[in-house]
Amino acid sequence: MAANGDASPDVALSPGWIAPGQADALFASLHRELPWRVHRVRMFGREIDAPRLSCWIGDSNAHYRYSGTTHVPEPWPGALAAVRARLAHETGVAFNSVLANLYRDGRDCMGWHSDDEPEFGPRPVIASVSLGATRRFVLRHRREPTRKVAFELAHGSLLLMRGETQRDWRHALPRTARALGPRINLTFRRVIGRR
Ligand SMILES: O=C(O)CCC(=O)C(=O)O
Ligand SMILES: [Fe+2]
């Protein structure tokens, strides 16, 4: 592999991975039942409210640290059991946690980052399930920012990020001026214990 990594990120989109009726039911149940909160994020050395609502879900031992705080996960809601089992079957990854994000409208967003915390180990597989309004998801190479890839993440879609995607690329969910309804995104991850 070249020093700068592969030409495109190791990502795969499966539109309609969840059928529309099931995706509607899943959206409604998560929207209603998850304990959504405003998380605090660090930006340029300051703590600010994240421009979205979030909920960290996982096995009780899947602790996750970010922005300097350890987060104890919420228990798995019944509505996610089938999705988790299907993802494990299709990817071979025993996902033990999910970060759920609720973008209330087009103003809610997520800035440039990569999910490269040591908890996820090298070359993590991250399975991103989208429900609700279609939003644009963008990836940009870390060292060659002119290299960009964009995906429209529609209701029921699955985006898998693998390989060196977190090491070599950043991703973001930009805000948009379009009038949009809410969107829920679920990123299934595997937290590996560390010493
Ligand atoms: O909402 C999305 O599609 C992306 C979410 C994301 O990047 C994350 O949760 O780390
Ligand atoms: Fe991310």
Helical residue percent band: 10-25%
Question: What percentage of the residues does DSSP assign to strands (E)?
Answer: 35-45%
Bound small-molecule species: 2-oxoglutaric acid, fe (ii) ion
Q: Whole-number radius of gyration?
A: 16 Å
What is the name of the CATH class? Answer: Mainly Beta
- Fold-level CATH name: Jelly Rolls
Output the structural class.
Answer: alpha+beta
How are the strands of the largest sheet arranged?
Answer: 1-12-9-14-7-4
Helices and strands, in order, run as: EHEEEEEHEEEEEEHEE
Q: How would you sum up the global shape?
A: globular
Organism: Luteimonas kalidii
Domain Fe2OG dioxygenase: 94-192
Protein name: Alpha-ketoglutarate-dependent dioxygenase AlkB
Pfam family, one: 2OG-FeII_Oxy_2
Description:
- The protein has helices spanning about 20-35, 80-90, 165-170, and strands at about 10-15, 40-45, 45-50, 55-60, 65, 70, 95-105, 110-115, 125-130, 135-140, 150-155, 155-160, 170-175, 185-190.
- With about 200 residues, it is of the alpha+beta class.
- It has one domain (about 10-190): Alpha-ketoglutarate-dependent dioxygenase AlkB-like (Jelly Rolls), CATH 2.60.120.590.
- The strands form four sheets. Strands 1-12-9-14-7-4 form a six-stranded antiparallel β-sheet. It has a four-stranded antiparallel β-sheet with strand order 8-13-10-11. A two-stranded antiparallel ribbon has the order 2-3.
- Strand 10 and strand 11 form a beta hairpin.
- The protein is globular.
- The model has no long low-confidence stretch (mean pLDDT about 95).
- It binds 2-oxoglutaric acid and fe (ii) ion.
- Fe (ii) ion binds near residues 113, 115 and 171.
- Fe (ii) ion (FE2) binds next to loops.
- Keywords: Dioxygenase, Oxidoreductase.
